[in-house]
Amino acid sequence: MAVSHNNTTKGGSDRPVQERLLDAAEELFCEHGFEGASIRDIAASANCNIASVNYYFGGKTKLYTEVWRRHLRLMRDARVSSIDKIMSQSQAPPLLEELLTSFANAFIEPMADESRSRRLIKLMTREMLDRRLPANTFVEEMIKPTMTAMQKALTKTCPGLDKSKVPLVVFSIVGQLVHVIRIKAMFEQTDSAEMPKFDLTEAVNHIVKFSAAGIRAYAEEKTE
Predict the structure, then answer these.
(1) 22 CB contacts (<8 Å, ≥6 apart)?
(2) What contacts 214, CB < 8 A, 6 or more positions away?
(3) Using one digit for the tens of pLDDT, what is the confidence trace for 65-115?
(4) Residue 5: which residues within 8 A CB-CB, separation 6 or more?
(5) At what angle do helices 114-129 and 17-36 cross, to 10 degrees?
(6) Exposed/middle/buried for 219, CB within 10 Å: 0-12, 13-18, 19+?
(7) What is the pTM for the complete model shown?
(8) What is the DSSP track for 139-174?
(9) DSSP assignment, residue 198?
(10) Rounded distance between C-alpha atoms, residue 174 and residue 207, angstroms
(11) Neighbours of 18 (CB within 10 A)
């Protein structure tokens, strides 16, 4: 089957074919899983011919990986940019709380988008049940770049912190933020008057203060 290189759909959309295929594939992978989402259905949903999947992505497996990479790149870039921005604002190192607040907000913002976070959670669930991603995708695409940027930033904002503690520090912060996002979703699904009102901003501020205190305790422990 010949591949159309026209970047417009029959309906007149000027969105690139690759974007339409990624969007269609993501929706179908979320709803039906990797096996349940056929190339034919993906192409039809994207208003493309079937050969477009192989032409642009080299097959369904690589398309699935690229759907994931798109999410991971967005999250990675937001988090690394938040670190770089706060570290370059002045000559002097920023306060530890400023670094953590910037990182936390960058982490929370995309996940707070209900439709996006819902799709990501569905993709994550599908991937956990039926692993299809190449090994180390998460590590190479998101974890390693974020850890590298955060390690440099924490070393400057908190010079006494043992570098060997940095991974644990970052894992702890990320774990708290992920948990807060899940708790927020749980609170929004209940109408019980007995449940306290959930304030995301207040929760993030708590995580920042709690984490900053723990990081400084680590640093002091090293110097004693």
Answers:
(1) 63, 66, 67, 70
(2) 169, 172
(3) 999 999 999 999 999 999 999 999 867 888 999 999 999 999 988 766 777
(4) none
(5) 40
(6) middle
(7) 0.79
(8) IIIIIHHHHHHHHHHHHHHSTTS-GGGHHHHHHHHH
(9) P
(10) 10
(11) 17
